[in-house]
Amino acid sequence: MLRVVHISHLFPPYVGGSSYVVENITQNLAAKNCDVEVITLDERGKLPMRENFNGVIVTRFRGFAPDGVYDVPSPEVIKYIKSVEADIFHIHSISTVLAAVAFYTIRHHKGKRCPIVFTSHYHAKGSKWHSRIMWQLYSPIAKKVLRSVDCLH
Hints:
Elements: E1 3-8, H1 17-31, E2 35-41, E3 50-53, E4 56-61, E5 63-64, E6 72-73, H2 75-83, E7 88-92, H3 97-110, E8 116-119, H4 129-148, E9 151-152
Parallel strand pairs: 1-2, 1-7, 2-4, 7-8, 8-9
Antiparallel strand pairs: 3-4, 5-6
Helix pairs in contact: 2-3
């Protein structure tokens, strides 16, 4: 059975475009008998850490997103990603710190033996003035990540 692990800063019940995309992709994979897990953030810490969401295992960790941007994962996320086995990792949303951290954690601890698919969900303009400034600092890292993935979706 193919094991696919998605990493995204948003997943239901949080609302957003990337949340909707990740939900649909994972539900379709689960319907095709894939073993699917989503690693995601729960900034408020009010949702179950682990649950079965219509056949998809969802594992949530605390994150930090001042003013709803950046989505910085807790150190527990890194530890967990190191321990997870998958045939494919699919990372979402290049504008989040979670995405870069996940990419470098997977590459450093699992090497090239585990393919990484990346869906950027990138908007050319940040909606907040500080996110536009931070993007100037973060974009060299983001470009390096996107050039290094196995498949850009």
